[in-house]
Write a structure and sequence with these properties.
338 residues; alpha+beta; globular
Amino acid sequence: MKKFLLFSLLLLFVILLVPLNESQPLIHLQNNVKAKVHSWMNGDASVKNNSLKVPKDQEFAINNIQLNTSKNKVERQLGKPKRVSTNEYGLKWFTYYDGNYNNFVMVSYIDNKVNALYSNQNIITSKSKIKYNTPKDVVEKRLGEPINEIVKGRYRFEVKNDEYDVFHQDHVYSTVFYDKHNNNGVTALLQVSEAMENRLSQQYGAPSSTLEKSYEYQNYDFVNAERKQHGLNTLSYSDSVSHTARKHSEDMAKNNYFDHTDLQGNSPFDRLHEDGITFDAAGENLAYGQTSSIFAHEGLMNSLGHRKNILNTNFTTLGVGVDFNNDRQPYWTENYTG
């Protein structure tokens, strides 16, 4: 037992500095060992909720919350939000969770009624018995053919993607995200009403400093919710590391490039050092062009190198920086340190 624990601890020192092309079995082995060792050492466990109920009024519920539920009822069940941030629809996301990112759910309201829901934890229930880890082929068998595009007036937006399905039923767009590296099982759910979706006439939300800051905090929350779901320690937020990350996103957006190495030849680690940030281990994730912070995070989780950073037990701190280019497309930089 002691030899196994020693071997496991040695694996924890394998740090991914930038995304690399590693074999899928190796990634699975490393992540599984890290999660188990951290759970043994810290007593953490993945999210569990034994009071989840099958929804009656809607196809899906998240932590027993369904679309059209009143805000008063939501907050009687979940308490006050831990964070309120702006979304691409020009409205607000209200973020609820218990303690240290247990039972994480985001809710957006129109006229104090739930019109959007999201979670990346095991708190999804469905009349069709779809839940966290349900295989993609089972989801499609039970919900039917996913749509390929969303039509808004004279605009058509393609939504066909092998990492998620979008279903349009009962005036609701339900996006089911899959984990490509865990048997294509359900890993997250986003529901948006037609009324909410139709508030966004273009592909991207209107750029603003408020939306940039909101995307930053949302991605920080998503990472911690993801780590909690996998039984890992959550990360503290760093304003100074976020400043470094934000400058890189601004540089990429302004100068029309997308790379870990900037135009001056500096690596992520050079940029952190230049800003006086000390670390024993560090990593950087980049995303570009996704329509929201939700799609950015889910895309990063389906990229092996980026996923390894998100789930790395050596990291203790995260900073996120977002900026938009002239085409309204957002750039995300996540800098991890430990």
